[in-house]
Specification:
With 559 residues, the chain is an alpha/beta fold. It contains 23 helices and 14 strands. It binds glutamic acid.
Length: 559
């Protein structure tokens, strides 16, 4: 029997039920007919039921790369590793993407749903495709069944380690099943021995390959020599083999994935070539890191230790989607902040992203910076938007607060509009979960009096200020008159309306107009720092103002 006959018989023996050919799938998944230069990218997570912030980061790179080139990005679920899979591990991924407005043109859209002509986009539904290609590799003499047991493989590894082999694994002279005869294979199959399908590598230990990583530039590595497993004993492919078939049939032009995959590139290039497929371009993205709180060392964001490693954390905390995307873009591309300054108000996803300019070193995820970015983002939203978004968040995470906010929506919006919709808006709110505390003093159900005074003011003076003020203020006053009245309180009570004068001669006064307003602010809001007090008073209303001034004065009297 010559080699061709041997291979054909072996292919039939191993895959008797596979009646399709690679050509069948070539026809089924034709060229996409996109314009020259249009890039096809994919986000290809495993459905672990958890979306890591690094996943969102990677997905953004995929979507932006496709978008700027006039191409498309799709979402593929890589569920061939049953050990890692959980029931409906997909929703965490699709929900996380939706929550932050990251949209794919094609692929999986939710648990059991998808869109696009190149599906199914879930690997477990593509087993026939992989087996068809696997069968064709056997026909070409490029793959063979291996019957070695787990024990045999670990004995092999031990032996290689004892020999001091530079490379360990199933290859060359160690690959026991490489040259089994058809009769031997038949006997093993008849005996019901489990088998995996292995790639017959023609790589050599002293050859190297080079490839161009879009982010890292030219990379040179030893050629692959390992007879990698293509199909596991249950007929399900390994990631290595499955993604090669998928990226080919889905016409991926750029494989963008985490840097942990760099070491597998020689293997993948060998597989693309063995299948007769064009090797895609590669881009390996850096990891998302943080400074460890205890050691201060830079380390990978960890699912176990860092709540902010999960995309769901940002949903729960109520970070607006714009803020997280805006922040991730500052990590993804050093040019983003300059672009943002030159293009305020333009959607972040319109950023003309350039994959080649992405940094290859780990990016530092910094919650403090995210908070700053988010405060900026929220500060330029109008009150209507803030109201809607807070309500949307509260409805899901704080039903009681939702009820409070919606009970009088005109008032709630007016509260949220203080110091907003002007050229210099306040930058106080970073996430929706902060809003309740931020505006709690407007609502009696949340208000908790705290009349602590600054050290330089005595309770007796505070009481005198409040009593005098309760007699003079009027809600009809415009802002200037309102402030003038506070200034007018100063002199009779031993304070000065003039801060400069106070600084020149501090011993001559009990304090200045700032101290007087502080006393009033504390009495009305129990805070030292609030947005515009004149606006706050307008929204508290006379009855409440009088009550709070009197309560505070009475509290100071008791001290
Ligand atoms: N399924 C792989 C992972 O979750 C994806 C690697 C790739 O994008 O090719 O890491």
């Amino acid at each position: 029997m010559d080699n061709t006959e041997f291979s054909a018989s072996l292919a039939q023996l191993l895959f008797p039920d596979i009646d399709k050919t690679p050509e069948y799938y070539e026809e089924m998944y034709p060229d996409r007919g996109l314009a020259e230069g249009a890039r096809v990218t994919r986000f290809a997570p495993s459905p672990t039921g958890y979306l890591h912030i690094g996943g969102l980061f990677g997905a953004l790179v995929d979507v932006l790369t496709a978008k700027v080139s006039g191409g498309l990005a799709y979402l593929r679920i890589e569920d061939t590793d049953k050990k890692r899979e959980i029931d409906d591990g997909v929703s965490a991924i699709t929900n996380g993407m939706k929550a932050f407005g990251v949209e794919f043109d094609e692929g999986v859209t939710g648990f059991g749903t998808e869109k696009g002509n190149y599906g199914p986009y879930t690997q477990s539904k593509r087993v026939e495709i992989y087996q068809t290609i696997a069968k064709s590799l056997v026909e070409k003499g490029l793959a063979y069944p291996c019957f070695c047991s787990a024990d045999e493989l670990s004995t092999l590894r031990e032996k290689q380690e004892a020999d001091g082999a530079a490379i360990t694994g199933y290859f060359g002279k160690y690959a026991k099943c490489r040259d089994l005869t058809l009769d031997e294979i038949k006997a093993n199959l008849d005996a019901g021995k489990p088998w995996v399908l292995r790639f017959r590598s023609d790589g050599s230990e002293d050859k190297r390959i080079t490839f161009e990583d879009m982010i890292r530039g030219k990379i040179e590595m030893p050629e692959n020599i390992i007879d990698e497993v293509l199909l596991k004993s249950d007929g399900v492919p390994t990631y290595h083999f499955a993604h090669v078939c998928d990226d080919h049939f889905m016409h991926t032009t750029h494989v963008i994935r985490g840097e942990e995959w760099i070491s597998s590139v020689p293997k993948h290039i060998a597989l693309f070539k063995a299948c007769g497929y064009k090797v895609p371009k590669y881009a390996h993205t850096p990891q998302v890191m943080k400074f460890d709180d205890e050691t201060g060392d830079k380390r990978k964001l960890s699912k176990r230790k860092d709540p902010e490693a999960a995309v769901s954390y940002f949903v729960d905390e109520g970070f607006p989607k714009e803020s997280l995307i805006e922040y991730l873009l500052t990590l993804i591309s050093s040019g983003f902040e300059d672009w943002r300054r030159a293009n305020p108000g333009v959607p972040a996803m319109d950023y003309p992203f350039n994959l080649k300019k992405m940094s290859s070193s780990g990016c530092l995820f910094d919650l403090v910076k995210l908070n700053d970015v988010s405060k900026n983002v929220i500060s330029v939203m109008n009150a209507e938007t803030v109201y809607e978004r807070v309500c949307e968040w509260a409805k899901e995470f704080d039903g009681e607060f939702y009820g409070v906010l919606t009970a009088d929506l005109v008032r709630s919006k007016a509260i949220l509009n203080i110091d907003r919709e002007n050229p210099k808006p306040r930058k106080d709110i970073a996430k929706w979960s902060e809003v309740k505390d931020y505006i709690s003093y407007f609502f009696n159900e949340y208000y908790q009096a705290d009349y602590t005074l600054p050290e330089n003011i005595s309770p007796a003076d505070a009481k005198a200020i409040l009593e005098a003020y309760s007699k003079v203020y009027s809600l009809d006053d415009d802002k200037d008159t309102w402030f003038q009245k506070i200034k007018d309180l100063c002199a009779p009570l031993g304070f000065t309306p003039n801060v400069k004068e106070f600084k020149q001669n501090p011993d001559a006064f009990k304090g200045h107009v700032g101290d007087v307003s502080s006393v009033i602010r504390i009495a009305l809001t129990s805070r030292r720092n609030t947005p515009d007090l004149w606006s706050i008073m307008g929204l508290l209303g006379d009855g409440e103002i009088q009550r709070r001034l009197a309560d505070a004065a009475a509290a100071y009297e008791r001290i």
